[in-house]
Design a protein that fits this description.
By secondary structure, the chain is of the alpha+beta class. The protein has 5 helices and 4 strands, in the order H-E-E-H-H-H-H-E-E. A two-stranded antiparallel ribbon has the order 1-2. Strands 3-4 form a two-stranded antiparallel sheet. A hairpin with a 2-residue loop joins strand 3 and strand 4 (106-108). Helix 1 (2-9) packs across helix 5 (89-97). It is globular, with a radius of gyration of 14 Å. The protein starts with a helix and ends with a strand.
Length: 110
């Protein structure tokens, strides 16, 4: 599946904070702002980061985080690197067909 391929590309961890639990997909550029559902616009995010970012662009969210005293340079660099890597659809399909599931965001084989 594409979702699993994106999780795989992103190392099964939130691209913003590194958390490995309760993973979701985040639209880097929100659909409401013209973002697409293409893998290059989707990043693995934990529920906490995705909820915090809400429906704003990553750039605006980084500005908000900086106003709270959070250094976003590493986040920005890691996100750019992740989005530049192509997803491996074959690996996503392999994970899906192998019965891999995600318990609190961590990959497990059944």
């Amino acid at each position: 599946s594409t979702r699993l391929a994106i999780y795989h590309r992103d190392g099964f961890a939130c691209r913003y904070c590194g958390d490995e639990s309760a993973l979701t997909l985040d639209h880097v550029v929100p659909v409401s702002a013209g973002g697409s559902n293409q893998p290059r616009n989707l990043a693995t995010a934990c529920v906490r980061c995705n909820s915090s970012k809400q429906d704003i662009t990553t750039r605006k969210w980084y500005a908000r985080l900086r106003s709270w005293g959070i250094d976003t340079k590493r986040m920005q660099r890691e996100l750019r690197r992740a989005l530049a890597r192509p997803i491996d659809r074959m690996e996503g399909n392999r994970l899906a067909s192998s019965g891999a599931r995600f318990e609190a965001g961590r990959k497990e084989s059944s």
